[in-house]
């Protein structure tokens, strides 16, 4: 057999035509979302005022195993997909490991990350429903950028509430979204009731993700023909992101490979859930038994130190309650540079799989993460996003263990995006001023004490 | 025949194993470089103190048609190459043109541009010669970034003199280079004689490219085992960049296509010379007759309003004299946002071809360029570098003419890089504060009055 190439791109014919819904192969589903108004399980109708109809249905659909990707979505996917599966020959050599390291690189588009995979789907369904526009929030800016691109493509107006401190600190991210035609508003703002209330209390606040979510939801439900969209955590998002794993699995089959271990970073779970989907399917159906590893920051350790409980998805406590690994919606993550992983909760679907023992999790400190990021950049020419570098760290650690043991394992990890907009973090690492933040047990106890009470379910 | 895919990637087997030296097919060579010390044509030995030996030889080699790409260079190319040839279906649809538009996208690596193709070759030959390190200068930062990556890969120390005003304005570019291990020094600096002299005269100067070149060259020739490298203008650079055109031509052959017109932006000529190489070969050898178009900023119109004359390559007037289209080495380009195109001269090889009528040139204004860049981004999801957007503008204009005439021409252009580090420019365009700068005839007359006198050659 000839040598495995550095990068493999599927042909357009080989690209998946359907998303894969992992829930169809789970023996047991995660506990249902709870409507905070009624404290009863949320019905699909409860979701219609906020989400567009097809997406609300996808959110609750545990039956349909394969979902056709609409042709219009496939057409836009083809502009930047397939993304390459890359054999990290140089990294292997630099680590002097017998392990084979593969990574799926999702940073190959202007949005710079995998977020575009779901943004396109969500914008398409909104357009199809005849909606007039969308609202969302963004923190670090990856999701806002991706959705701006998708909305530009489908000609759909978009309002992005961007956390004010990011809005001021990251003018370039804002400029990218504006270039794609989005309206970007610093949150809190005077465009919503909740924003005005917060500004009245504290005119100088830098805002928060929770506040931005509240504003985006309020704007959507009070604007004729608008809906709100979210870039992670939700089942619908993991469904769309399954394109990552499906492409990867096909590419590995072509190469005659199968991973012994699949590694992904985990914030809300959108990338991890997408990458692992078909491999977890093999595991749940007994076809194969790869190890599956979530990597999270030690500063925001939802899986490894959180509690499996019902909690709000946002700081503002206006969203449905979800059963998930959580640090408490009042948890204030440290100023870790991986903005995309600074989230108190976790995808309910992945939480269930972790709780049932189908996957592992590991927490890593950010100086170790940037050490890995820099090493990787020098050897593979891709400067990774801080979020993605969590997976690199874990993959390198696995490869170094293989060096010790002499095992030639096949390691697969997800490289979700590039770090072009994260150079402040790299500078901090280069200058030796980066610190590690690890919450104390007392910190976590305090933030977990804010978990909501639900009569008969969570007292 | 099945539909042409959105993007075509060659397989590793299909990738070129040799660079193509266009000079071997030119009926007449460009006039030789002149050593400013002796005012005689430069010999290869004259170049050895500054350039490493193999590169000095490549610089003067007009005979060897195909040059083997060293295996180590091919290995590093494979990390990020082949780059895709993309059919711009969405742009075509948005323009409602019968033209077929293809672009070769070179922004698919962390350096963000085509510059890496030559940086790898230059770093490799330096390593092979046993050199201890390299120096270079960078303005906007694309070349400095690319060379930092290449030197990191080959384990070669690198000192980059970065124009002080850019050093302060673009901390992220600096951080990328530092992450790859380069020493980045704001120029003028106290590390060189020439730098100290300039600082003595004007301690608050923001520096200039000419000053940075002078410092980099001084540092190289005064440091044991160091050499200086340059990212454009030179014949050796165009040779390495021929990989762009060779890959493109192979990909078009696979698709059964051939361009009616080939379009590239032109600063020093590194991308344009690389992209057009095999198509110009066809033209020079009578195999085909594509139109070949250089696109330059109206603010720095070397081809369209410059003079074909001997001139210095740098403001400091320490480099050899080259016969080229020039605006005069004293020309101070306006604050146009396409930093990579703000150069007073042009590749001598391309200058000769233009002078002989083998190619055309067009100058475009920057507001029109950013209009095209934004339109392209919305339709193709790639946010282009301002330099690359010059080619987009010209390609769109060509496609719009096809719409008028009903001709289904095949248009090919080079998309040299991404605009992630140019958001200040996009913001200026989005906010409507961007201006166009066009030098007056008097401006050009004055800067051209500084052309050097060469006894018997240029009086």
UniProtKB/TrEMBL annotation, chains A, B:
Keywords assigned by UniProt, alphabetized: Amino-acid biosynthesis, Aromatic amino acid biosynthesis, Lyase, Pyridoxal phosphate, Tryptophan biosynthesis
Cited InterPro entries: Trp_synth_b-like, Trp_synth_beta/beta-like, TrpB-like_PALP, TrpB-like_PALP_sf
Catalytic activity of the protein: (1S,2R)-1-C-(indol-3-yl)glycerol 3-phosphate + L-serine = D-glyceraldehyde 3-phosphate + L-tryptophan + H2O
KW Amino-acid biosynthesis (keyword) present: yes
Keyword Lyase: yes
Enzyme Commission no: 4.2.1.20
Domain Tryptophan synthase beta chain-like PALP: 80-417
Molecular function GO terms recorded: L-serine hydro-lyase (adding indole, L-tryptophan-forming) activity; pyridoxal phosphate binding; tryptophan synthase activity
One cellular-component annotation, GO: cytoplasm
Protein family per UniProt: Belongs to the TrpB family.
Protein name (database record): tryptophan synthase
The species this protein was found in: Sinanaerobacter chloroacetimidivorans
